[in-house]
Amino acid sequence: MANYQFHAADSRGDANHGWLRSRHTFSFSNYYEPDRMNFGTLRVLNDDHVAAGMGFGTHAHDNMEIISIPLSGDLEHRDSMGNVEIIRNGDIQVMSAGTGIKHSEYNKSKEEPVKFLQIWVVPNQRDVEPRYDQLTLNPQDRLNTFQQVLSPFPDDEGVWLHQDAWFSLSKFELGVEKTYRLKGEGTGLYVFNLSGAIEVDGQRLSARDGLAITDVKDVAVKAVSEAEFLLMEVAMR
Protein backbone atom coordinates (compact mmCIF):
# COMPACT_ATOMS: atom_id res chain seq x y z
CA MET A 1 0.00 0.00 0.00
CA ALA A 2 1.29 3.45 -0.89
CA ASN A 3 2.67 5.47 1.99
CA TYR A 4 2.78 9.29 2.05
CA GLN A 5 4.48 11.59 4.55
CA PHE A 6 3.86 15.31 4.15
CA HIS A 7 6.47 17.87 5.22
CA ALA A 8 5.07 21.41 5.39
CA ALA A 9 7.47 24.19 4.39
CA ASP A 10 7.26 25.85 7.81
CA SER A 11 8.01 22.57 9.62
CA ARG A 12 11.60 22.55 8.34
CA GLY A 13 14.61 23.43 10.46
CA ASP A 14 15.45 27.13 10.32
CA ALA A 15 19.04 28.36 10.64
CA ASN A 16 19.73 32.08 10.35
CA HIS A 17 23.42 33.01 10.53
CA GLY A 18 23.01 36.49 9.07
CA TRP A 19 25.01 35.80 5.92
CA LEU A 20 23.21 32.44 5.51
CA ARG A 21 19.55 31.55 5.86
CA SER A 22 19.02 27.82 5.50
CA ARG A 23 15.89 25.70 5.81
CA HIS A 24 16.56 22.01 6.53
CA THR A 25 14.08 19.35 5.42
CA PHE A 26 16.14 16.72 7.30
CA SER A 27 18.23 16.93 10.46
CA PHE A 28 21.36 18.95 9.81
CA SER A 29 23.88 20.81 11.97
CA ASN A 30 22.06 22.24 15.00
CA TYR A 31 18.64 21.10 13.73
CA TYR A 32 17.88 17.63 15.07
CA GLU A 33 14.56 15.89 14.60
CA PRO A 34 14.76 12.08 15.08
CA ASP A 35 11.78 11.50 12.78
CA ARG A 36 13.38 13.59 10.03
CA MET A 37 16.87 12.12 9.64
CA ASN A 38 16.63 11.11 5.99
CA PHE A 39 14.46 9.62 3.28
CA GLY A 40 16.21 6.42 2.30
CA THR A 41 19.59 7.45 0.88
CA LEU A 42 18.49 11.11 0.62
CA ARG A 43 20.28 12.51 3.67
CA VAL A 44 20.25 16.32 3.24
CA LEU A 45 17.90 18.74 1.51
CA ASN A 46 18.89 22.30 2.40
CA ASP A 47 17.24 25.38 0.92
CA ASP A 48 20.08 27.94 1.19
CA HIS A 49 20.09 31.73 0.77
CA VAL A 50 23.60 33.25 0.86
CA ALA A 51 24.12 36.99 1.20
CA ALA A 52 26.06 39.01 -1.37
CA GLY A 53 29.80 38.34 -1.25
CA MET A 54 29.47 35.69 1.46
CA GLY A 55 29.74 31.92 1.43
CA PHE A 56 31.03 28.65 2.82
CA GLY A 57 34.78 28.68 3.46
CA THR A 58 36.99 25.71 2.64
CA HIS A 59 35.80 22.58 4.42
CA ALA A 60 36.13 18.82 4.00
CA HIS A 61 33.78 15.98 3.04
CA ASP A 62 34.15 12.27 2.42
CA ASN A 63 31.92 9.40 1.29
CA MET A 64 28.96 11.50 0.24
CA GLU A 65 27.39 12.48 -3.09
CA ILE A 66 26.79 16.25 -2.96
CA ILE A 67 24.49 17.98 -5.44
CA SER A 68 23.96 21.74 -5.85
CA ILE A 69 21.10 23.21 -7.87
CA PRO A 70 21.20 27.04 -8.09
CA LEU A 71 17.79 28.72 -8.13
CA SER A 72 19.02 32.30 -8.60
CA GLY A 73 22.34 34.10 -8.60
CA ASP A 74 25.89 32.82 -9.21
CA LEU A 75 27.78 30.43 -6.95
CA GLU A 76 31.59 30.28 -7.16
CA HIS A 77 33.06 26.84 -6.49
CA ARG A 78 36.69 25.95 -5.68
CA ASP A 79 38.00 22.55 -4.59
CA SER A 80 41.11 20.55 -3.78
CA MET A 81 40.92 18.84 -7.19
CA GLY A 82 41.72 22.16 -8.85
CA ASN A 83 38.24 23.00 -10.09
CA VAL A 84 37.24 26.68 -10.16
CA GLU A 85 33.74 27.08 -11.56
CA ILE A 86 30.72 29.38 -11.55
CA ILE A 87 27.39 27.60 -11.08
CA ARG A 88 24.31 29.49 -12.22
CA ASN A 89 20.55 29.01 -12.36
CA GLY A 90 20.03 26.38 -15.04
CA ASP A 91 23.13 24.42 -13.96
CA ILE A 92 23.49 21.33 -11.78
CA GLN A 93 26.67 20.37 -9.94
CA VAL A 94 27.62 17.01 -8.42
CA MET A 95 30.64 15.99 -6.37
CA SER A 96 31.56 12.48 -5.28
CA ALA A 97 33.49 13.18 -2.08
CA GLY A 98 34.74 9.58 -1.85
CA THR A 99 38.13 9.33 -0.14
CA GLY A 100 37.97 13.03 0.70
CA ILE A 101 37.77 16.50 -0.83
CA LYS A 102 37.97 20.09 0.37
CA HIS A 103 35.87 22.81 -1.25
CA SER A 104 34.39 26.27 -0.83
CA GLU A 105 31.19 27.81 -2.22
CA TYR A 106 30.81 31.61 -2.36
CA ASN A 107 28.25 34.02 -3.69
CA LYS A 108 29.99 35.50 -6.74
CA SER A 109 27.89 38.69 -6.60
CA LYS A 110 28.69 41.59 -4.28
CA GLU A 111 25.15 42.92 -4.69
CA GLU A 112 22.61 40.10 -4.96
CA PRO A 113 21.95 36.99 -2.83
CA VAL A 114 22.36 33.51 -4.28
CA LYS A 115 19.75 30.84 -3.65
CA PHE A 116 20.44 27.16 -4.17
CA LEU A 117 19.47 23.66 -3.08
CA GLN A 118 22.21 21.69 -1.32
CA ILE A 119 21.43 17.96 -1.46
CA TRP A 120 23.39 15.02 -0.05
CA VAL A 121 22.86 11.40 -1.12
CA VAL A 122 24.54 8.48 0.67
CA PRO A 123 26.63 6.58 -1.94
CA ASN A 124 26.42 2.87 -2.70
CA GLN A 125 30.24 2.66 -2.77
CA ARG A 126 32.69 3.94 -0.19
CA ASP A 127 36.12 5.46 -0.78
CA VAL A 128 35.72 6.09 -4.50
CA GLU A 129 38.04 8.48 -6.29
CA PRO A 130 36.71 12.03 -5.75
CA ARG A 131 35.25 13.69 -8.83
CA TYR A 132 33.44 16.86 -9.93
CA ASP A 133 30.88 17.37 -12.67
CA GLN A 134 28.72 20.27 -13.77
CA LEU A 135 26.13 20.55 -16.52
CA THR A 136 24.11 23.40 -18.01
CA LEU A 137 20.50 22.32 -18.51
CA ASN A 138 17.94 23.55 -21.01
CA PRO A 139 14.97 24.90 -19.00
CA GLN A 140 12.67 24.38 -22.00
CA ASP A 141 13.17 20.64 -21.63
CA ARG A 142 11.22 20.65 -18.35
CA LEU A 143 8.13 22.51 -19.56
CA ASN A 144 5.10 20.30 -18.88
CA THR A 145 7.28 17.20 -18.54
CA PHE A 146 9.91 15.62 -16.28
CA GLN A 147 13.44 16.70 -17.25
CA GLN A 148 15.89 14.12 -15.93
CA VAL A 149 18.89 15.95 -14.49
CA LEU A 150 20.66 13.15 -12.57
CA SER A 151 20.90 9.35 -12.70
CA PRO A 152 23.24 6.48 -11.74
CA PHE A 153 24.58 6.19 -15.30
CA PRO A 154 27.36 8.30 -16.89
CA ASP A 155 25.85 7.91 -20.38
CA ASP A 156 22.30 8.86 -19.32
CA GLU A 157 20.68 12.29 -19.29
CA GLY A 158 22.03 14.73 -16.72
CA VAL A 159 24.91 14.29 -14.29
CA TRP A 160 25.53 10.99 -12.52
CA LEU A 161 26.36 9.74 -9.04
CA HIS A 162 27.23 6.58 -7.11
CA GLN A 163 23.70 5.57 -6.09
CA ASP A 164 20.40 4.36 -7.53
CA ALA A 165 18.93 7.85 -7.79
CA TRP A 166 17.10 9.79 -10.49
CA PHE A 167 16.30 13.50 -10.15
CA SER A 168 13.94 15.41 -12.44
CA LEU A 169 13.04 19.10 -12.66
CA SER A 170 9.67 20.25 -13.97
CA LYS A 171 7.77 23.42 -14.79
CA PHE A 172 4.06 22.79 -15.30
CA GLU A 173 1.49 25.20 -16.64
CA LEU A 174 -1.88 25.45 -14.91
CA GLY A 175 -3.92 22.27 -15.29
CA VAL A 176 -1.16 20.07 -16.72
CA GLU A 177 -1.20 16.54 -15.31
CA LYS A 178 1.47 13.89 -15.90
CA THR A 179 2.35 10.49 -14.46
CA TYR A 180 5.87 9.87 -13.19
CA ARG A 181 6.88 6.20 -13.27
CA LEU A 182 9.62 5.17 -10.91
CA LYS A 183 12.75 3.88 -12.65
CA GLY A 184 14.48 1.84 -9.96
CA GLU A 185 13.79 -1.27 -7.90
CA GLY A 186 13.10 -0.61 -4.23
CA THR A 187 13.20 3.16 -4.65
CA GLY A 188 11.03 5.85 -3.11
CA LEU A 189 10.14 9.33 -4.35
CA TYR A 190 10.57 12.66 -2.60
CA VAL A 191 8.71 15.57 -4.20
CA PHE A 192 9.91 19.07 -3.31
CA ASN A 193 7.69 21.84 -4.66
CA LEU A 194 9.67 24.96 -5.52
CA SER A 195 6.91 27.38 -6.45
CA GLY A 196 3.20 27.50 -7.16
CA ALA A 197 0.94 24.63 -6.15
CA ILE A 198 0.68 21.01 -7.27
CA GLU A 199 -1.28 17.91 -6.35
CA VAL A 200 0.61 14.63 -6.05
CA ASP A 201 -1.75 11.66 -6.03
CA GLY A 202 -4.38 14.13 -4.82
CA GLN A 203 -2.25 15.64 -2.02
CA ARG A 204 -1.69 19.36 -2.35
CA LEU A 205 1.77 20.89 -2.05
CA SER A 206 2.39 24.63 -1.87
CA ALA A 207 5.76 26.35 -2.28
CA ARG A 208 8.58 24.55 -0.42
CA ASP A 209 6.33 21.74 0.85
CA GLY A 210 7.70 18.21 0.51
CA LEU A 211 6.11 14.79 0.16
CA ALA A 212 7.87 11.47 0.83
CA ILE A 213 6.31 8.54 -1.04
CA THR A 214 7.07 4.84 -0.80
CA ASP A 215 5.54 1.60 -2.09
CA VAL A 216 4.36 3.01 -5.41
CA LYS A 217 5.22 2.34 -9.04
CA ASP A 218 4.03 5.72 -10.29
CA VAL A 219 2.53 9.00 -9.10
CA ALA A 220 0.21 11.51 -10.74
CA VAL A 221 1.30 15.16 -10.58
CA LYS A 222 -1.14 17.94 -11.44
CA ALA A 223 -0.45 21.69 -11.51
CA VAL A 224 -3.02 23.64 -9.50
CA SER A 225 -1.25 26.81 -10.68
CA GLU A 226 1.88 27.38 -12.71
CA ALA A 227 4.43 25.46 -10.66
CA GLU A 228 8.05 24.34 -10.55
CA PHE A 229 9.16 21.26 -8.61
CA LEU A 230 11.94 18.73 -8.10
CA LEU A 231 11.43 14.95 -8.04
CA MET A 232 14.07 12.91 -6.22
CA GLU A 233 13.81 9.15 -6.68
CA VAL A 234 16.29 7.41 -4.40
CA ALA A 235 17.22 3.97 -3.14
CA MET A 236 15.59 3.29 0.22
CA ARG A 237 18.18 0.80 1.50
Automatic annotation (TrEMBL):
List, in alphabetical order, the Gene Ontology terms for molecular function in this entry.
metal ion binding
- Provide the alphabetized UniProt keywords: Iron, Metal-binding
Please verify whether the record's keywords include 4Fe-4S: no
UniProt domain Pirin N-terminal: residue ranges: 11-121
**Chain residues that bind Fe cation:** H59, H61, H103, E105
The prosthetic group or cofactor this protein requires is:
Fe cation
Cofactor info, note text: Binds 1 Fe cation per subunit.
Taxonomically, the superkingdom here is Bacteria
Q: Which residue ranges does UniProt annotate as crossing the membrane?
A: none
Q: Which residues form the Quercetin 2,3-dioxygenase C-terminal cupin domain?
A: 149-234
PANTHER family for this protein: QUERCETIN 2,3-DIOXYGENASE
Protein family according to the UniProt entry: Belongs to the pirin family.
Any idea what this protein is called? Answer: Pirin domain-containing protein
Q: Which organism is it from?
A: Sphingobacterium deserti
